[in-house]
From TrEMBL:
InterPro entries: ClpS_core, E3_ELL-like, E3_ligase_UBR-like_C, Ribosomal_bL12_C/ClpS-like, UBR1-like, UBR1-like_WH, WH_DNA-bd_sf
Gene name of the encoded protein: LOC107602271
Annotated protein name in UniProt: E3 ubiquitin-protein ligase
Residue ranges, annotated region (Disordered): 655-678
Molecular function as annotated in GO: ubiquitin protein ligase activity; zinc ion binding
Amino acid sequence: MDPGLRERAQMLFHLLLRYTTDMLVWEDTNELSEEVMEDTYFCVLYNDEHHSYDHVIYTLQRAIACDQNQAQIYTALIDKEGRKAVKRGTLRSCQQAKDNIRRNSEHIIQKPLRVEILHSAVMAHQNFALRLGAWFQKIIGYSVGLREVFCQVALEPASDNNKPCLISQLMLHDAKLYKGARKVVHELIFSSLLMDTEYKRQFAMKFTELYKQLQEDFICDDHQRNISVTALSVQIFTVPTLARQLIEEGSVIKVIIDTVMDMMREHLDSNQRFHFQGHNPDKFFRVQVIFHDLRYILISKPSVWTETLREKFLEGLRVFLRFLCCMQGMEEVKRQLGQHVEVEPEWEAGFSLQMQLRHILAMFQDWCSSDERVLLLAFQECHRALMSCTNQPFCSEPTDSYMCKQILHARPYKVSQEPVSIHLPISRLLAGLYVLLSLWVTGVYLYVFQVQLNFTELAEQPLRCVVLAAQVCADMWRRNGLSLISQVYYYQDLKCRDEMFDKDIIMLQIAASKMDPNHFLMLVLQRFELFDIFNGNSSSKDQEVLKQWNRLTEEMLYLIIIIVGERYVPGISHVTNEDVTMREVIHLLCIQAMAHSSLVKSLPENESHETWLETVISKVAVFKKPGVSGHGLYELKKECLKEFNPFFYHYSRPQHSKAEEAQKKRRTQEGSDKALRPPVPPPFCPGFSNIVYLLCCDIFIHILRRIFQKAVEDRSSRWTEPMIQRALHLVGQALLEEKTQLESNSTEEVSICLSCKMFEVVKCLREKSGPVTSFSSFQDKEKAERKRKAEAAKAHRQKIMAQMSTMQKNFIESNKMLYDNVPESLSQSDTAASVERSPLSSMWRVAVGPQQGVCSTDWGAQICILCQEEQEVQAQAPAMVLTACVQRSTVLTQDRGKTLSPKGCYPLFMPPDLAVGTHTGSCGHVMHATCWQKYFEAVQNTTRNRLHADLIIDLENGEFMCPLCKSLCNTVIPLIPVFTLGKVKSNFCFVSLSVREAMVLFDESQADFRSILSFGVQEPKFSRSITEMLGVCATTVHRVGLQTAPNDLCPYVPVMSWNTCAYTIQAIGNLSGLKALVQFSASQRLKSRQAVIQKHFADMLAGVGLVLSIPALYQEEAVDLQPSAVSTAFNHLYLLHLVTMGHMLQILLASHGKHTGDEAQAAAELFSIVLRAGVSGFSVESVKRGVLPFLRCAALFFNCLTGVPPPEELSGTAESPESQLPLLCSYLSLPSNLFQLFQDHRDVVTTLIKRWCGDAAISKALKGEMQIIRYPRKRNRLIDLPEDYSVLLNQASHFKCPNSSDDERKHPTLCLLCGVMLCAQSPCCQQQLNGEEVGACTVHATICGAGVGMFLSCICLCFARRGNPLHLCPERYRKLLHMWQQHCILEEIARSLELLNVMFPFEWQML
């Protein structure tokens, strides 16, 4: 850069940056220039994270008298920019507004909102300073030289030595800046100081110098870390070379830990240990965030060590050990006796701190392992810190204990009587360092000789923790409350176990390898408080005490199994990290086949959030692709099953039971024995090889002898089956170890000879107990028990058969009349099978007309799912109801996005595009109406008290969950008995409406109806409860379908019932409840006034409603009648003919092409009639394809209405559409040549067709001026998604919110119904819907899906976990499609929310 330009730029940047800094760090004490004469002020409201949106809006409305819209705008700007001037005026008026805001926002548990009064000149200068920040970013982007000049000016020391440099001033004042100013400063630092290596180093040194003050300010601040200057640490500390320099030159490890220690010093007790009772959770959380910076510093261990680096690292380690000393033994607990603990002690804070330190402890060990000298010095420092801890392990002098001629010299201690702590970070760190030292063979022996370690003392504290967990499992600490149970759970849980439970086991293995095996086991017996029991010096008759002793014995044996068998730790045996992960995966898959996500969640992570699953999964498992539902699962390879250990130490109790059951089940299926043998473990490293001597020492043999002796004495209170299993497992481990040594060494070199000792034990037990007699007596007892059970089962079967016989006789007796009236052709000699095979059986499979068959089955007896009582469905009986869900639907729409529910529309006429319909679905579960009413009232009473009730069901709209399957419901459908018509003989005399007579009814000139009373019969009467349930269901359908208030007197109530029946049949995905829905719709005419039904009949020409309303013609005001069976049969037939011809005309007008084939003549005559309407041609096949869906729906409708079963060929799925047409025509009593209908009714139909084709709307449609719906209608599907999720992310990255002009990150969301991209979870796209502010997705779902929507979030997470790329699962997407087509989305959402049991509501309407 030119020197002159550099000089001018330096001067200009210095002046402008100084000006920007002065304005942004402006204090109230600063004085304005005398040139500022204007006396105008602003009342400025600042953002905080304590007050909610609604609270701020309410406060502004009350304080400054603005309307709600203006308050919402102010609040949105305050949240986005950090502050907003809400009042402009004199100092007095602004002060009054400030007082009002603080007074209205103040609460007992909340501070008032932050409000300041600023002079108008200060506001103007600060706004200009922010613009200068943006200008700086633009200017320094032009040239590297300009950026260097700016960095020099920003880091240049101030002329006043008492002040830091300009960038330091901005950082120190960061917590006082508002959000908008912070963003500008942070972006300026990013674009300048962090872009150059040297200036980044200098800035990092400044940042480290100010680190403590910056963190103190952050802790006192209420804003999130992502808008704090402390968040820049991730940009600095994660650079390995820069982290090394900061350790060497800035002692950054010491700085970070000292900062944490100063922040937490207030929590130290008199013993200099942490005690978090009554701590501030928010402040404590912010302090823990500082540990992230320590993780960043240690994330990459050095490959080359310098002396300075060693010195500074060890200095930081010593400071870290002082911090751990405050945790060692903190929050001790003492067993509560007699009375339950009154106040649960605080424990979450301690474990939260442990979780934060989990990876840091592992990183420190990883750094130490990279240099032998550092490792030796670190071990020495850690051991010194452990010995200097203030909590002394004992309070008494050592004593001698005797067992099997062995003497243990140790201090007495009982976990059940003295204080014990679960927090031992220094002991566990020392265990980890010791294992690392064992890898450096010469170093280990050199150090062990220099320092005489007392392994008994080292093992003491970890052993206490293990015993504490065992005693908690034995219910000895139940009076200490849930806090201790939770601590023990997390002690062994995935989140903490690698630096707690696992390290305790390692320390016990270290002690077992260095101590005499007899002494070690005697120490274990003492701490488990079982020493006297196995020594024969203690006895008790208290069953509770005996139960505790048995459980402690089980846990003690389990501990020995772990110490001897768990060797998958690098350094303890010759294994790698890959072997460790592989073993974890094997044991997880031994429980059950698992999905990839479940495996990842069940595996421990390292500091980089990696589990190494991908490196081993292909070696141990095979992937099974998912079916229609569920996840793809990994199944364990058969050759890996031999690695299964039933006592794997990372199993929880439920996992242990599941794994054992699964493996026994697998072995049974394979025909092998169920014995779960211990697997062959890898050999110990030389430093730990002495552990195996535990399996052959005198104390071990004594323990086994006592356990087996208790078992053969047949004293059930002294032993348990798990105890024997563990003892036998230990025997198996010892024999495996002996076998391994025999195979690898000579007989003289074998260190374990358990087989001889165990033979002596078994021989002695046989001689003392006489096991043959015991076994024979046991077999006799078992045979007697089996015989008793068999006799009881036989008696139970005989009782049931007698009851069934009695019921059959009662049924025949009560229905004797029916059996007497059976025709001779259907006598007892003729079976049901012969009837089906007879020629007449095909005639009976007709649902319409005079040849209508007989109803096969009625409802029969139904069992209420609530009271379990059985009842027949009868007209005069109490009502039985089906649970149902009524919802608006656009699944069948042919015009997505069309405005729904236009005002003034006659709801009966469903337009051809089916833009929206009313669907009624049911899960098929039956209840008494009275039982349902009681259940619904109980749901209302209990749900109102649940915090998340508004997420699951809407009580105001009558929603509830099915008591049995938890499906979402909002009404019930009464079960109406099917009124069969019987067999209609052809020679009966009948009078019915012919097509010509029906046409008279459609004539608009006919204003009145004439009764055809002479052809009617008395209609059935329903019980009061059935009539009431008819009204309940009809009102719900009317309310939901028309989105209106309930109104029983509305004339649209019956037509909406017919409407939902027709729509549900067309969208049928589940036959459950369809029969009940059709019968309910048919009964609606009995609930409404005859004039209303007759008016609807005259107005419409649609199949379902026409059929269900025609009985109203037989009614008069004084007499309630219905058509006879004969009249009904012919009415159904002629109406079906009429509607079929009308639909065929629809298809004809919408089709194009030429007609050929056998039906050409009949089709040509029809075509000649409609030719003048403008149709150019049509195809016979296209008409047949178009009419097929209508015939299927008609067959379903008449099957549910009349109860006549369809032909068996229609019930299967093998029939092709071409072969279904004649079967449907036969079932519906239609000619196989449908065009023949137009010839049979030529005189009447010709006039009708001419009238239809002459309509103006038809002419417009044929000219292309209106949309034409072609048949068959297309079946809607979800949009096609790319297989790779990254493709979708690329598409979403180009999305720009249409209502926002800034560059702030949005939440692009894709509608799966229509493919529109929306801006979700953002106030910029919120709209008013029914007087409520809702999000863009909610608005779109109302338009696109009638209130039901499916959206896919297209957000790319910046801190997403590394792993396999995301791909679309076609099977799962297909399941989602089926769920949508079957109208199960609402049901699935309700079930998911019920299972999640969300305690804090989420505002879904704001999506």
